[in-house]
Amino acid sequence: MSDSHIDKFFEIATDALKKEDVFLAERLAFCETAGFYRDYHQGISFLFETTLIYLIFRELLANDFPRRENCEVRWEDPYPNNASKKVDLLLKPSSPLPEAFVEAKIWRKEFGEDLKSDIDKMKELPTESRRFMLVFWWDPTDGNTNLKWLKSELPVKTIHSNLFHTKMRGRDKKIETVNAILALIELR
Hints:
The chain is of the alpha+beta class. The protein is built from five helices and six strands; from the N terminus they run αααβββαβαββ. β2 and β3 form a beta hairpin.
């Protein structure tokens, strides 16, 4: 899997999530004026990892990523040596380039315990393949502190990151704008 494939993958993934965030924010805010969804966030922050990955998968197909990049995209594909485990996305080029396995994680736990468990799981994947984690989190800051922590505490390197604004309900139940951060990290 070449760096240009990965660059294009991340660009499309980011666009997919931004588009969904805008759609949900607009529709939920509109419904709230009629008394509905008053306890929902107004963006992608209430979606599950599997939903976020499906949105990315769908957008990759909509952008003709497989034909343009000569790379098949598989969703929930079995691990090569353990069919009971599934990888969120597999990018499988037609050429002899190595495959890229992508696991998604919504980072919610302090000290990255949830990230560490997925990294351990990914150690089962072939080392000749590229292994990535697509990490989502919400942050009142620009996310740089967390990105630095990822690089210093985990056996990964950051390939890409992107920030966009989303709407969440705070502890007082009022809607506030926070930063949604999406980072693509590669296992070393």
